[in-house]
Every structure is written in structure tokens, then in C-alpha cells.
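Need C-alpha cells for this chain, all 215 residues.
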Amino acid sequence: MKSMSVVLRYAESALTPMHRGLCESSALDREVVFGGQSVDGVETVSSFVYGEPDAYEALLADREAVLEYDITPTDDGCFVYVRQELGPEGRSLQDSIAQDTVVVVPPIEFRADRTMTLTLVGHGEDLRAVLDSFPETVTVDVRRVSDGVTAQDTAVSSRQQDALRAARELGYYEVPRRNGVEAVADELDCAVSTASELLRRAEANAVGEVLDGSL
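Here are the C-alpha cells for all 215 residues:
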């Protein structure tokens, strides 16, 4: 069994309506899908969206294909549950990965630069068949292939980057430290606990990418 992490870059015409809305909104950064299923043409997913909850809700409310949704705001985005009818773009993706032994390992990440990142697990010949099945409107970049089952860590979000940048400028990473997390929170105009959580998540993701050799 092999694992394959890929980045799909979509042409404008190949984007799903929700991914297109994510790309076009300056208030949204990315969506990380934790899990989902598709039954009789209806897709149900649970995800986290980095950005303004109201901006993402506007995308859902404007689409007739959305059957129901629930949004729970947080400090740096929102948790989302949504059921929607699959359009031709979504069905095309499902058809591309529909090989006998292939399974998608969450998370799946949709970004505002028209890319989608996901990890696939299956037999080598079926993974190669997946690569060959994508249409010309999708550019495939294979980032990592390994033996066994692995998952792809999500990248540092723009909000986490803001926290890292503020921390560096304030001397949070200097030795000795010039300012603490309280100063970072003041710079970001958020609670100290929020700033601390943003830094911890960003540092964990950045360290993971460095040690995995993907930077």
C-alpha cells in the first residue's frame, strides 16, 4: 500500500462554485475538510474555514444547490456543516479518484489560489490511474509518495502567518525575548489565549513542514 500527497491546481473553468467563491473573496483564506460522504448526488461535509464567517455564509446562502448548513464562528474562522447537491465539477473529481483500492485521507484543503491539497492511499497502479484520469483543466503536482498510510499536514494559514509575523517583529523570538504573547495579542487585537493558540498551531505546522522536508 502507498500514500500519495498531491496538489491540484484548477483552471478557472474547472472550479466548483464554492471553491470559486473562496478564491474571489478577499475575506476568506482556505477551507479544510475533515470528512464527508456523497449519497445519490448529495454531498455532506464537515470543515473549517479560515476567514470571515459572514463571507462564507453568503456563499452558501446564495446557492440553490445547498440543502442545509450550520456555521459555528471562532476567533480565526468557522466550523461548517453543509449538505449540497453535487455539480458537474464535483462529480468529475469523484470520478477521477474512483479506483478500486483508493481512499482519500482527510484533511482535504481548498485554498484561495485555486489549489486543492489531498492525500490518497491505495495500490500503486490505482494511484497512477488516478493521476492519469484528471482532465486537462487540472494540473497535478505530486508532492510526496511513501509506503504505508500517511496524512498530509495542513499549511500555515494567513491568520497564523499574521501571528508569526507580529511575534517576530515584536521580538517574541529573540533571545532574550523582547516582548511576550501579550504584545502579540495587542498587535493582532485579539485575546491573549487566541494569540497563544495561533502561535502554537503555526509553530507546530511550520516545524512539521521543515522536518518533513517540504519547505
